[in-house]
Write a structure and sequence with these properties.
This protein is of the alpha+beta class. Among the domains are: 190 residues, 3-Layer(bba) Sandwich (FAD/NAD(P)-binding domain); 61 residues, no CATH class. Helices cover 33% and strands 19% of the residues. It is built from 13 helices and 19 strands. α1 packs parallel to α4 and α2 packs across α8. 41% of the residues are buried.
């Protein structure tokens, strides 16, 4: 197992159900605490484990929920506890039952690592770098050349999985073995982060637990998220797309927050006490390495996680997609086990099927990135432009329709495919909204402007 981050650890957990020995190789020094690692440069930034990811982690690690409670990791209802503002306005506030745990990436990864190390036959080798694959005379992969300090050796295995992330060397390794070079699709919206950690104030009450303020394509490229995490801390991430990177110096950071489409984050930020520097991060392109298109694929070798496909992290899909991919591997191994102990044919079958685990997330991430004309890597086609129009209409409906809002949440959190947004019940709400707008604009007499208007005149339809 090459790579000891979330994708690698989840894969190791699955492999432990099928193999007597699982060895995880990681270049970093591994400790039992929650220190940040060089191998996870985005680790200090905001991470939200989507609901599908949380379901899988609960299945793989039954004790994780107890760890959440012991560390006082906030549990948040995605409507009642989250002030969510998108381009069309603020989303409805009610108890929808869709919940997430809000923890730091480092804390969650440390807990996953703890449970993986407890699995039968699992060994974690820290400060160990994979250098190249070893293949037998039939070009099947049966080992990996590694370096640990000044020592080099070859580790042999029945199956080797590369989950080493964006810096994976699998493209070069496969080419060296004569399997060709896969094509790569890269879509870059030029999004950047600036993140800071704060003390969580104890004497201030809000009607929200977290705030997420989206951008407004294409007039305002700024977005921000303020989330509670373990240890009575708040994590603030400001993001800018289309080269509008948030500054990492004090005055610019605050001014960037002031320009968000909603004032909540800016007004709150002025009252908070920082406990960290401002961290920047800009490697956010979507990148799909099309291993599945290679005409030949070696037995004994798989590529998964960010090494195969990675996403603009703004949409929070990475960890959840890694969990879905791990479960796909589990299903593939169980199906293949009925054919006997020989693993021949398993690796090509899994690699061809892998896009099924991440294609929906890819379409969601790249579709949103294509809203910005500065995005590199292609242009939105007719179906993407229609999706943009349709989602814009949906955003207008969601503040007043729980059904439309929950359909959006189910797709965003990988619980349902994007086609769920086109369910007849959702389309019916959208058409009813369009009809009301037409009647208000063209058939009803103008209404005199009242002297005083309520602060929130939206009517939420519980449907």
């Amino acid at each position: 197992m090459i790579g000891g981050s979330v994708a690698g650890l989840l894969t190791a957990r699955v492999l432990s159900d099928h193999f007597e020995q699982v060895t995880v190789l990681d270049r970093d020094q591994i400790t039992d605490d929650t220190e940040y690692r060089n191998g996870v440069p985005q680790g200090r930034h905001l991470h939200v484990l989507l609901m599908r990811g949380r379901q899988i982690l609960d299945e793989l690690f039954p004790g994780l929920e107890s760890d959440y409670r012991a560390a006082n990791v906030p549990l948040m209802d995605l409507s009642h506890d989250l002030e969510l503002a998108l381009g069309a306005g603020e989303m409805p506030r009610y108890r929808c039952g869709y919940t997430v745990r809000s923890s730091s990436r480092a804390w969650l990864e440390s807990k996953i690592r703890k449970y993986v190390r407890q699995c039968r036959g699992v060994e974690v080798l820290a400060q160990t770098e994979a250098l190249a694959l070893y293949a037998n005379a039939e070009k099947a992969v049966s080992g990996v050349h590694v370096r640990h300090g000044n020592t080099r050796q070859t580790l042999y295995a029945d199956l080797i999985v590369d989950a080493s992330g964006r810096n994976s060397k699998s493209i070069e390794w496969l080419k060296a073995l004569g399997y060709g070079k896969p094509s790569i699709t890269t879509i870059n919206a030029y999004l950047g982060y600036a993140t800071r950690w704060y003390e969580r104030p104890r004497d201030v009450a809000h009607d929200w637990s977290a705030v997420l303020t989206g951008s407004r394509p294409t007039s305002n490229p700024r977005a921000g998220g303020l989330f509670p995490v373990e240890g009575d801390r708040w994590l603030l991430a400001l993001t800018g797309i289309a080269h509008a990177y948030p500054p990492t110096e004090e005055a610019g950071f605050l001014e960037f927050a002031r320009q968000l489409i909603r004032p909540t984050i800016y007004e709150t930020l002025k009252t908070l006490t920082p406990i960290s520097p401002i961290y920047g991060y800009r490697r956010t392109e979507n990148r799909w390495v099309h291993f599945e298109q290679l005409k030949r694929w070696p037995d004994g070798f798989l590529v998964s996680g960010d090494a195969a496909c990675c996403f603009n992290p703004f949409y929070g899909q990475g960890m959840a997609v890694s969990a879905v991919e791990a479960m796909l591997l589990d299903e593939t191994l169980r199906a293949h086990r009925g054919q006997g102990p020989d693993l021949r044919g398993l690796a090509p079958r899994f690699q061809r099927a892998l896009p099924n685990a991440f294609r929906s997330a890819w379409l969601l991430a790249t579709g949103e990135d294509f809203r910005w004309p500065t995005t590199d890597g292609g242009k939105p086609d007719r179906s993407t432009r229609f999706a943009h129009w349709y989602v814009d209409q949906l955003f207008e409906v969601m503040p007043r329709s729980t059904l439309a809002f929950e359909a959006f949440l189910s797709v965003q959190h990988l619980l349902a495919p994007p086609t769920a947004l086109f369910h007849p019940s959702v389309i019916a709400r959208l058409l009813a909204h369009k009809a009301r707008k037409f009647v208000d604009a063209h058939l009803l007499p103008p209404v005199p402007t009242p002297v005083a208007q309520p602060t929130n005149a939206a009517v939420l339809v519980r449907d």
